[in-house]
């Protein structure tokens, strides 16, 4: 399509602009007497004086307007970033103003308007990036810039008055322990599943009879609900702990880290093994025939032809496993597995929304960053040279 016939206004950008302005009509923040009771919603222009709110509102409006031109995706990306900066500005100014004179136990939190606006601006940014179609190295740079900006905002203490950061301030050590436990559950189970699943996938590729017997079993494990799987692990590892000498000494017990870790490994075997088989089968017959003609042994064909060509599919399987395990590790807290799910279930028991968010938001962020990073690795492993820009 020629530039002359291209639409001047992006249809998604127009939709995001309308939805973004509508989101500003919803309560942008909530003010509550304490951490337990429900808060009262406050709209963006009512949180503080005009000198504090107008810059943020202007930045959000300008960002939504910049998201309209269809032909300038870089401008649309900059508009999304400007809108996010305006939303953060309103949070900073609004939290200080609302807490002034509200009492020692008062809490302020982002409201529905902020969360809706955050999603809308994130979608605008994603749409602009899809039009730009940056290569993996450019995406890695954008991801690093986004993480640096987030770290700068969080490290500055500008949002310290928000209720979720007050929950964090009273649980710093517990949060650090939960973060390490969550990472061990997600990445450790991925590593074990890869160590077991790769050889199984190679054997299944070489022996169709083994594939027909093993993959249905692994598929069946995927159909077991996560709570049921964790429940099955409790008596199983409890028996191992009681009967096997030295099992308790290395941390094997009916509840805690071990059953959660084993359940995640079992969930991970199918994606790793099946994608390994699928990746190895992507090698063109002509390439395999040429390798045989060159006198390559089966081992050489595997490591020099089949695995390099199938690496993108294999990495895609690891991406599925990683994002899946980051989410499932939250449920592991129900059996003492730790992780961010500890705060989620504590918050549910106490009806403390911000404590729930203290566990949920890092989980979402970790899953999102992991998915983007794995997508970058998949593209880097792709043999298509034009994508390496």
UniProtKB/TrEMBL annotation:
<feature type="domain" description="ABC transmembrane type-1">
    <location>
        <begin position="179"/>
        <end position="374"/>
    </location>
</feature>
<feature type="transmembrane region" description="Helical">
    <location>
        <begin position="75"/>
        <end position="92"/>
    </location>
</feature>
<dbReference type="Pfam" id="PF00528">
    <property type="entry name" value="BPD_transp_1"/>
</dbReference>
<dbReference type="GO" id="GO:0031460">
    <property type="term" value="P:glycine betaine transport"/>
</dbReference>
<keyword id="KW-0472">Membrane</keyword>
<comment type="similarity">
    <text>Belongs to the binding-protein-dependent transport system permease family.</text>
</comment>
<keyword id="KW-1133">Transmembrane helix</keyword>
<feature type="transmembrane region" description="Helical">
    <location>
        <begin position="302"/>
        <end position="322"/>
    </location>
</feature>
<feature type="transmembrane region" description="Helical">
    <location>
        <begin position="215"/>
        <end position="237"/>
    </location>
</feature>
<dbReference type="GO" id="GO:0005886">
    <property type="term" value="C:plasma membrane"/>
</dbReference>
<dbReference type="InterPro" id="IPR035906">
    <property type="entry name" value="MetI-like_sf"/>
</dbReference>
<feature type="transmembrane region" description="Helical">
    <location>
        <begin position="328"/>
        <end position="348"/>
    </location>
</feature>
<feature type="transmembrane region" description="Helical">
    <location>
        <begin position="48"/>
        <end position="68"/>
    </location>
</feature>
<feature type="transmembrane region" description="Helical">
    <location>
        <begin position="249"/>
        <end position="270"/>
    </location>
</feature>
<protein>
    <submittedName>
        <fullName>Osmoprotectant transport system permease protein</fullName>
    </submittedName>
</protein>
<dbReference type="GO" id="GO:0055085">
    <property type="term" value="P:transmembrane transport"/>
</dbReference>
<feature type="transmembrane region" description="Helical">
    <location>
        <begin position="355"/>
        <end position="378"/>
    </location>
</feature>
<keyword id="KW-0812">Transmembrane</keyword>
<feature type="transmembrane region" description="Helical">
    <location>
        <begin position="142"/>
        <end position="164"/>
    </location>
</feature>
<keyword id="KW-0813">Transport</keyword>
<feature type="transmembrane region" description="Helical">
    <location>
        <begin position="112"/>
        <end position="130"/>
    </location>
</feature>
<feature type="transmembrane region" description="Helical">
    <location>
        <begin position="184"/>
        <end position="203"/>
    </location>
</feature>
<dbReference type="InterPro" id="IPR051204">
    <property type="entry name" value="ABC_transp_perm/SBD"/>
</dbReference>
<dbReference type="InterPro" id="IPR000515">
    <property type="entry name" value="MetI-like"/>
</dbReference>
């Amino acid at each position: 399509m020629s530039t002359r016939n291209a639409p001047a206004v992006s249809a998604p950008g127009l939709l995001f602009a309308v939805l973004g302005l509508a989101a500003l009509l919803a309560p942008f923040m909530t003010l509550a007497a304490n951490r337990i009771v429900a808060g009262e919603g406050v709209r963006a222009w009512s949180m503080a004086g005009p000198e504090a709110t107008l810059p943020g509102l202007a930045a959000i409006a300008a960002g939504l307007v910049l998201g309209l031109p269809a032909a300038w995706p870089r401008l649309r990306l900059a508009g999304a970033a400007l809108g996010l900066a305006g939303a953060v500005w309103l949070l900073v100014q609004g939290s200080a103003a609302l807490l002034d004179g509200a009492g020692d136990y008062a809490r302020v939190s982002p409201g529905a308007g902020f969360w809706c606006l955050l999603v809308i601006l994130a979608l605008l940014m994603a749409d602009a990036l899809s039009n730009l179609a940056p290569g993996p190295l450019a995406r890695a740079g954008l991801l690093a810039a986004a993480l640096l900006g987030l770290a700068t905002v969080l490290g500055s203490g500008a949002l310290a008055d928000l209720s979720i950061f007050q929950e964090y301030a009273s649980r710093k050590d517990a949060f650090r322990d939960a973060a390490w436990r969550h990472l061990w559950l997600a990445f450790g189970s991925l590593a074990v599943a890869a160590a077991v699943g790769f050889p199984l996938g190679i054997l299944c590729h070489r022996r169709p009879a083994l594939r027909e017997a093993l993959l249905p079993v692994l598929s069946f494990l995927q159909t077991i609900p996560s709570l049921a799987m964790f429940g099955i692990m409790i008596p199983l590892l409890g028996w191992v702990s009681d009967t096997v000498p030295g099992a308790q000494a290395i941390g094997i017990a009916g509840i805690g880290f071990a059953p959660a870790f084993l359940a995640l490994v079992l969930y991970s075997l199918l994606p790793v093994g099946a994608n390994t088989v699928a990746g190895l089968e992507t090698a063109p017959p002509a390439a395999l025939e040429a390798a045989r003609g060159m006198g390559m042994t089966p081992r050489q064909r595997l490591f020099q032809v089949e695995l390099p060509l199938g690496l993108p599919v294999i990495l895609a399987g690891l991406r599925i496993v990683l994002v899946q395990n980051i989410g499932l590790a939250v449920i592991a807290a129900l059996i003492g597995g730790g992780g961010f799910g500890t705060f989620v279930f504590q918050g549910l028991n106490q009806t403390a929304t911000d404590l729930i968010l203290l566990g949920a938001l890092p989980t979402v962020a970790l899953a999102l960053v992991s998915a983007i990073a794995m997508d970058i690795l998949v593209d880097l492993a792709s043999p298509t040279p034009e994508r390496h820009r």
